[in-house]
């Protein structure tokens, strides 16, 4: 098991996972922009036996880190891999002395909300009609020592 920086060569697999896992998946161009043109972005993949099974995206903004995406292949869900990605993101944020980590999550995504709460994220606001299908999002924040 290893976590490493995402590369353009990884995007075929990443886009496959996006389409399988998300209602509004990012396309290859979205990820290329993040990897090549967004100096605040950091995207990381989780590999098991040289197979990409998950990934996480971060934006390093001022005094906070924002989780832009987190995903685990359906065949590997429920085995602790999303927790490994979260631990990695939180460790990286603490190393960089950020004050908090935040994210938005669909109000209907009970499994993801439970994961975030397990790591100490608190629901601080509702973003009305945040997603393209009109669904609300919770804004969740975890305060760090930073």
Automatic annotation (TrEMBL):
Family: Belongs to the acetyltransferase family. RimI subfamily.
Cited function: Acetylates the N-terminal alanine of ribosomal protein bS18.
GO molecular function: protein-N-terminal-alanine acetyltransferase activity
Name of protein: [Ribosomal protein bS18]-alanine N-acetyltransferase
UniProt keywords, alphabetically: Acyltransferase, Cytoplasm, Ribonucleoprotein, Ribosomal protein, Transferase
Any Gene Ontology CC annotation: cytoplasm
Keyword check for Acyltransferase: yes
PANTHER family xref list: ACETYLTRANSFERASE (PTHR43420), ACETYLTRANSFERASE YPEA (PTHR43420:SF44)
One Pfam family per UniProt: Acetyltransf_1
UniProt catalytic activity: N-terminal L-alanyl-[ribosomal protein bS18] + acetyl-CoA = N-terminal N(alpha)-acetyl-L-alanyl-[ribosomal protein bS18] + CoA + H(+)
InterPro entries found in the cross-reference section: AcTrfase_RimI/Ard1, Acyl_CoA_acyltransferase, GNAT_dom, YpeA/RimI_acetyltransf
Main EC class the enzyme belongs to: transferase
SUPFAM superfamilies in UniProt: Acyl-CoA N-acyltransferases (Nat)
Location in or out of the cell: Cytoplasm
Species of the source: Faecalibacillus intestinalis
Domain N-acetyltransferase: 1-145
UniProt-listed Enzyme Commission number(s): 2.3.1.266
NCBIfam families (UniProt xref): rimI
């Amino acid at each position: 098991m290893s976590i490493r920086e995402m590369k353009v060569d990884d995007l075929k697999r990443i886009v496959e996972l996006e389409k399988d896992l998300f209602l509004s998946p990012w396309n290859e161009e979205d990820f290329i922009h993040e990897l090549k043109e967004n100096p605040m972005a950091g995207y990381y993949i989780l590999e098991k036996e040289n197979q990409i099974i998950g990934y996480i995206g971060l934006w390093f903004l001022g005094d906070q880190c924002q989780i832009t995406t987190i995903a685990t292949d359906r065949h590997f869900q429920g085995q602790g891999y999303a927790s490994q990605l979260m631990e990695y993101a939180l460790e990286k944020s603490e190393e960089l002395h950020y004050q908090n980590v935040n994210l938005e999550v669909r109000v209907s995504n009970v499994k993801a909300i439970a994961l975030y709460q397990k790591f100490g994220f608190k629901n601080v606001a509702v973003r009305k009609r945040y997603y393209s299908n009109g669904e609300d999002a919770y804004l969740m924040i975890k305060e760090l020592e930073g």
